[in-house]
Design brief:
Blueprint (H helix, E strand, L loop, with lengths): L1 E9 L2 E6 L4 E5 L12 E5 L2 E4 L1 H18 L2
Antiparallel strand pairs: 1-2, 1-4, 2-3, 4-5
Length: 71
């Protein structure tokens, strides 16, 4: 199973970063409408699915880093 982070939407494409830092373009229609930058997706059998647990974990890690910076 592969893991990707949604970097941004560009026109009709979603730009995702893989675990090695490589960027990939996929048609935007392959993603849920509520997808947003920073969401973590898994790719299994050709289907992208938001990994809510990993997305929340990454959000909390980033929030903690920002809190440390601005203290």
């Amino acid at each position: 199973m592969n893991s990707f982070v949604l970097d941004r939407f560009e026109g009709g494409f979603a730009v995702l970063e893989d675990e090695n830092g490589n960027l990939h373009n996929f048609p935007r229609e392959n993603f849920p409408e509520h997808s947003q930058e920073g969401d973590i997706f898994t790719l299994k059998n050709g289907i992208f699915k938001i990994d809510d647990k990993e997305t929340q974990k990454k959000f909390e890690q980033n929030r903690s880093l920002l809190d440390d910076i601005f203290k």
